[in-house]
Amino acid sequence: MCGHWGPEARPGAPWVFEFNKNSHVRNTLVHVYSLCVGGIECSRKLFDEMPSQDTVSWSAMIGGYVRAGLSADAVALFRKMQVSGVKPDEVTMVLVLSACADLDMDDKTIVSRTSVIGGMPMHGYGSESVALYEKMINAGVVPGDVAFIGLILACSHSGLDREGRKYFTLMKEKFGIEPKILH
Fold first, then answer.
1. Least CB-packed of 52, 91, 97, 127 within 10 Å?
2. Which residues of the chain have pLDDT under 70?
3. Distance, CA of 36 to CA of 174 (rounded, Å)
4. Which keywords accompany this UniProt record (predicted)?
């Protein structure tokens, strides 16, 4: 259906500007464009041109990337979301976890898993963050210092002080990572 809308339905068309004043409409348009064949670029353009993005906006765009099979882009956008200070909700976290599951076991996966390990404890999912770290280790992925920041944060937020100390020791002794102020 999207391919038949023609140029008047593209971001920047006059009728889009009129509806673009409403955040619900903007978020819906980001979602709808992302469903179209080849529409992910239009969706991202609309997302980037929003005066402000809320959690729903970020989730709509991240979800668009996931549905389009662009999991690395979804995870990269999630990192930008974290940096921007917008807090993800449960929907965002499910989308990011889905994106991570789609990625192969390579450097991108290390980055994506580290992002999720660091993001989950901020929303009450500290135990799940620790479980994801353990899965990563069992899969043979060597964590970096940023993964340990997230992991120790997860332990701290979940009352897992003993485990946090254990991971801090492992970080130094097993992985040779020197503690930094964030650890």
1. 52
2. 1-20, 104-109, 182-183
3. 48
4. Repeat
Q: What is the pLDDT of residues 85-110, one digit of tens each?
A: 999 999 999 899 888 877 765 555 67
Long-range contacts of 167-170 (CB under 8 A, 24+ apart): 167/133
Which residues, including other chains, have CB under 8 Å from residue 58's CB and lie 6 or more apart? 77, 78, 81, 86, 88, 92
Tokens 């994106």 belong to 99
The pTM score is 0.54
Cα 58 to chain centroid distance, Å, stands at 9
Domain locations in the chain as residue ranges: 7-103, 104-183
Tokens of 5: 């809308």
